[in-house]
Design goal:
The complex is a heterodimer of chains A (278) and B (363). Chain A is mainly alpha-helical. Chain A has two domains: 54 residues, no CATH class; 214 residues, Orthogonal Bundle (MetI-like fold), CATH 1.10.3720. Helix content of chain A is 77%, strand content 1%. Chain A starts with a helix and ends in a 5-residue tail after the last helix. Chain B has two domains: 230 residues, Rossmann fold, CATH 3.40.50.300; 116 residues, Beta Barrel (OB fold (Dihydrolipoamide Acetyltransferase, E2P)). Helices cover 26% and strands 33% of the residues of chain B. With 363 residues, chain B is an alpha+beta fold. The chains are: A mainly alpha (278), B alpha+beta (363). At the A-B interface, helix 9 and helix 10 of A face strand 6 and helix 2 of B.
Amino acid sequence: MRERWVEKFIKFYLPLLVFLFVLLFPFYWMFITAFKSDAELYNLKLNPFLIHEPTLQNVIMLFKETLFNQWMVNTFFVSILATLLSLGASLLAAYSIQRLRFRTSGTIGISIFFSYLVPPTILFIPLATIIFELKIWDSLWSLVLVYPTFLIPFCTWLLMGYFKSIPKEMEECAMIDGASRFRVFWQIVVPLALPGILSAGIFAFTLSWNEFLYALTFISTNTQKTVPVGLITELVRGDVYHWGPLMTGALLASVPVALVYSFFVEHYVAGMTGALKE
Amino acid sequence: MAKVLMQKLNKHFGEVKAVRDFDLEIPDKEFMVLVGPSGCGKTTTLRMVAGLEDITSGDILIDDKVVNNLPPKDRDIAMVFQNYALYPHMTVYQNMAFGLTLRKFPKAEIEQRVKDAAEILNIKELLERKPKALSGGQRQRVAVGRAIVRKPKVFLFDEPLSNLDAKLRVQMRVELKKLHDRLQTTIIYVTHDQVEAMTMGDRIVVMKDGLKQQVGPPLELYFHPANKFVAGFIGSPAMNFMEGELASEGSALFFQGPGMKLKIPADKAAKLKDYPEKRVIFGVRPEDLPEAACAAPGETFDVIVEVMEPLGSEVYLDVKAGEHSLIARAEPTTQAKPHARLCLKPNLENLHFFDFRDEKTIV
């Protein structure tokens, strides 16, 4: 009995604990740094893993001396719009590639995937030209337009897999019942693919929320920045790192993402495993 | 109510010819069964009638109207699928009402029709449930209910019973047949199970490799198969086949195989006498091989019993006649023992002879 427990501890709980520690320690570090004063932060004699004199000065500085509120609003605006836009396009693309089986459907499916493989560090140069031409440089709309370039391929592939798991007979039956292709899509396929659509949405939202490179290159006005770019550009001044407010900002910015995940976690798992329960 | 006509129907998937020159006329109210081994083109034919599969060439007419290019929803048909294809996010009621709602029926009528169908199928208390809370048999009933509420011209069934367990299958078979008697609607029913075909169909089409082999009422196919394939496919256990040669001895004609000999009765001999080929295939069903007292060679077969399969009401004997393995049906009171010698006397009324090359029935 005891030996079995030891075995289970070594094989299961120990790796789990190590894994949890690696994942959660950065959050812990972020959390304690957010509530430490600069004096405490740089005092090497104190135990760095504990807060000795908790303070709110970092929070106050973040909200008073930077446009953090505005950045949050901007990030929400860009993430939500880009996600909706990408989901709309991906739903139609994935469905048509998976089900309509036109002559080039296979090729199109693969080329969408390849476009996802091109790194943003290469893509941002030609994209910058397009953004200039469209006269949306230094505006949030540039991000709303650019983010789908990597979100659509990603969501399309995720949804293609999901649509594949929906029995074709269900759609055929609905068509015999009198539904048009579009109605079949809306009334049968979309409700059944909801877990998949939610996971794609969560992913798209998180990717947009954390996106850094495009936001850094296409936005320069302070009021138009997103959280990741705003924090880095405004709170790292030259070689001076304002660790307290930086960590406070990072902590607050991770709250919406954490909420979204915890809210949809069940659907999210089902969506990832492609499980369609009849 | 409708008649369905298929003329020179062809379906090719690239190089594969799934259905070839298929002609069939299904009169109004008929229960027509398409049967054949998997890959014979029966489901493809049904899907072409439904409009789910394009036609490569030929015509499909429902009530004398060509429907080749009509979408499924405009053909006034209903289909029951093998996996039921119930919409999992809708209740049983919504599943059954879906087609009527799309066709903009008044709410009161939808309710009436769903209630009526639920009554017929004995699923009234399930209407508020979701499909996942139903057993296989109940799902099957809902799928049938969804088809009958629309009162279509033609019902299409695609192996609807193959996902049910054996007992339920027998029960649903009877219910579907009763339903047909009650609704008097044309039905096209696809199955690979010849027992289903025999018990349910008014007429049966046997298919193989995309080709129609024979069409006719069940007993006609059973007693007068057009070729060796139909003879072997219809009936369980399958018909026994033996290859051998025709030999004349005086005025009598004999069938001679390795280690066995049989005198052919006069009426059949008359037709076989002038047959140009000497080599033929002889077929006899297990129930036409009863035990008998041993007689002169040519009257009875000498066999060795290998295995006995008692079923209670009857016993199947797996026997060896010369080089051939045969199955014979015996009474439960049989004295046969494994590895013992036995004599079988074929029922001369029901002997079949097939051409050795094209396997068509000679007599």
